[in-house]
Amino acid sequence: MASVEVVTIDNKKAGSVSLSPVVFEAKVKPDLFHAEVRRQLARRRAGTHSTRNRTEVSGGGVKPWRQKGTGRARQGSIRSPQWAGGGVVFGPVPRSYEHRLNKKLRRAALRGALSLRRQEGAITVVEALPIDEFKTKRVREILESLSLLSGSVLIVIAEADEKLERSARNLPGTSVLRVAGLNVYDVLRHGKLLVTKAAIAAIEARLGDARDGSAAP
User: Fold this and answer.
1) Residue 210: which pLDDT band, with cuts at 50, 70 and 90?
2) Quick one: 134 and 198 in the same domain?
3) pLDDT tens string 131-150
4) In 3D, which of 148, 145, 204 has the Cα closest to residue 176?
5) Local structure of 177: helix, strand or coil
6) In what helix (H) or strand (E) does residue 206 lie, and over which residues does it extend?
7) Helix, strand, or coil (residue 56)
8) Which of 2, 17, 65, 137 reaches 20 to 30 Å from 53, CA-CA?
9) Are residues 134 and 206 in the same domain?
10) From CA 20, how far away is CA 112, in angstroms rounded?
11) Residue 115 included in any domain
């Protein structure tokens, strides 16, 4: 069972915490990362693109000229696709791009992403993140003291903390997520993770079911 040091916001040692091997020593499978990230991004697509076919464009429903005798090609309607302003053939219509992925695979992908960051030594566990006011400067000072200001960092908290979430909003490359919303895409797109001690316990409670069989042998 791996363990990591717990530090204060001043980067002073505050003990250590043991990490569940089911969650933080799982198999790292890039194919699962690809499948889950693809599912997440597809779900975010609006799918509101739309074109009008010949039944929806304006125009007469009668022949523009008689069938024969004019010397021109026969035409049935000015709403036909070959006319300027005519309907579009097989154009995009509103649709959902969402597709399903087995819940067991999604959990395994998240475990793998967390395990990858642990292997890289990119997880910093902090005792707590007390923010008394809405102030971006305060969050910046904390990240600087923890040597996390350079690069991208994902701050993971156990429960809602409006002051912290709003204070970190304007810091480039910095995101705040609650454990309930922790996902593979955000873990992978941030180089480092700053996790509170309470969030570690919440993550293990959420993903610690060993019956999924995703722990490394």
Assistant:
1) low
2) yes
3) 999 999 999 999 999 999 98
4) 148
5) strand
6) helix 197-207
7) coil
8) 65
9) yes
10) 13
11) yes
